[in-house]
Each structure stands twice: as structure tokens, then as C-alpha cells.
Amino acid sequence: MIYINCDGYEEIGNIIKTIFHKENIEYIKNNSENEIIKSNVFIHILSKSEKSVANLNIAMCNGITIIPLNPDIIKSKEEINNFLIVNKLIKARNKNYTKYTGQYQNGVYHGYGVLENKTTIYEGNFVNGVRHGHGKTIFKSDGSYHEGEYRNNTYNGKGVLNYKGKFDWFKGEFKDGYIEGYGEERNFSGTYKGEYHKGKRHGLGEFKWNNGELYIGEFSNNEMHGKGKYINPDGTYYIGEYKKGYRSGFGECKEKDGKIFIGTFKNGAKVKGKEICVDGTVYNGEFLYNKYNGYGEIIYSDGTDYKGQFIDGKPAVNIK
What we know:
Layout: E1 2-5, H1 10-23, E2 27-28, H2 33-38, E3 41-45, H3 50-61, E4 65-69, H4 77-86, E5 98-105, E6 108-117, E7 120-127, E8 130-139, E9 145-151, E10 154-163, E11 167-175, E12 178-186, E13 190-197, E14 200-209, E15 214-220, E16 223-231, E17 237-243, E18 246-254, E19 260-266, E20 269-276, E21 282-288, E22 291-299, E23 305-311, E24 314-315
């Protein structure tokens, strides 16, 4: 907000107001102390009038940026326009540009109001100059928004977040600007409901993909991590431990061909365990690249068996 201190030089003040009006730059028209305190820039048209000096003192005491304008040197509209450009006031719609409409108390935003800057529009409650209470922030770039509770100028409490390019919507709890605690979201992959920490899926949760796949279990840093259960629409599944999104540790899985494996995994692949086939064949031993590799024992459905080394899924004795 820009205050024009033009007592005794109303003609120059009116020229400045005309320029500001054309550029859609907000300025203060009244001459009360409270109006001066609201400003962040104070244009002081040099004057020795009592009123002008008093206004200048108020601006100085409140740390407001003061721009002096000498009316003996700068008089014409062109000269004033050039002066404003030099002082970057004509460019007030830059990253520091703000526009506020609403209630005040003791010279600061307090109560209901609308605050607009280059990137966002906030509409809601203020306390002592900061967003506090219920409100809504709209991001101008793509229309994304947050609506809910604020505390000390950040998201705090229950809220809804529509974040274009990341997820369609989120509803749940926020703390100090982050998604925190329980929440639900819908994104381009599917839906999630569960726990969050500092904006990421963390703790117990459930994610269902658009293709029908479902994971129920633990998350860390947005990834499946810890114990969980992954179920596919075709009936195949995995129940066990995950590490950074991969099957790692002890688990059980059922595959498309009906095989059931119980054992250890590493980085998504079988390492060692027992595999039961549909025809009754049972293998117990080591794996590499999800095939029998290393030492193991197999008992076929007809009762014959083999114990020893395996290579690429077959007993080494059969390899020539």
C-alpha cells in the first residue's frame, strides 16, 4: 500500500493518483494516522506544512519506506511519471505487490479480509496481521487452492487441498503448513487414506490403484515400507515385509500360475524359501532372479525327488 503525503501540493498528489489509478496501483487517500501505518511506501512531497511534517514523523517512527519528491524540480505529469518509474513504484505489481481489502485493528489486518499478491489470493480471517482462523488460498497460476484452518499464517488443523498436477484433492489434517496425521487423497494413480508425516504418506494406510490393485499396510516417505498386504484383482497377492517400495524380508505370495511361495525376498525378488506348485510339486531352497538357483530340494508330484544344486530353474544333474 502506498501513502501520498501531498498537503499543500494537492495538484501533484492528484497527478500521482491519476497515474496509480491507470496502473491499478492501490494507494491511501485519507490522512489519518491509522491510514499511514497501513502503508509500506510513503511518498513525501517536500513541504514544511505542519500536517505534512506530522505525517512524515509518523512514517519515520513506524519504519515505513520514504520516497521524497521535490515539487520545485519535479512538476509535470511526464516528470512525475519518470520519477515513479525510477523508484519502481509504477511497477508495484511485482513480487512484493499486495492488495488488501477488509478489517483492521491497530493498523494491521484483523478480522475478515481479502489479501492478494502476485501469486495468490487469500480470503478469510486475520489476527494481528497474519492469516489465522478459517480461510481459503487460491494459487493464480493454475487455480489450485487450500481451504481450511490457519494458524500463524500457515495451514494448521482440518483442511482441503486441491493441488493441480499432484493430486485432485486432499482432505485431512495439517500442521505448520504440512499434511500431518490422518487424511485422504485422490491422485492420478488412485486413492489413499491413512497417515501422513510432513506432507508424505507415512504410517498405516491403504492405497487403491485405478486398475483395482490394493495395498494395505505401512508407508514411509510415500513408499510401501514395513509390513503390508498387496492384493491384485486376479486373486494373486503378497503378504509380508517391504523396504522402499520393494518386497524385502519375509513374506508369502501367490502367483498367476497358482504357485505359492513362502520365504525371504530382496529388492522384489525371491531369495530363499518354499514354493508349492498346483500339481503338488514342492521346492525348498535358494533362488536367483526368481528361479531355482543354488542349493535346494524338490519333491515332484509323483513322489520322486532331487536334492542338490539347481541352475536356472533345473537340477544341475540334468544340465549338460
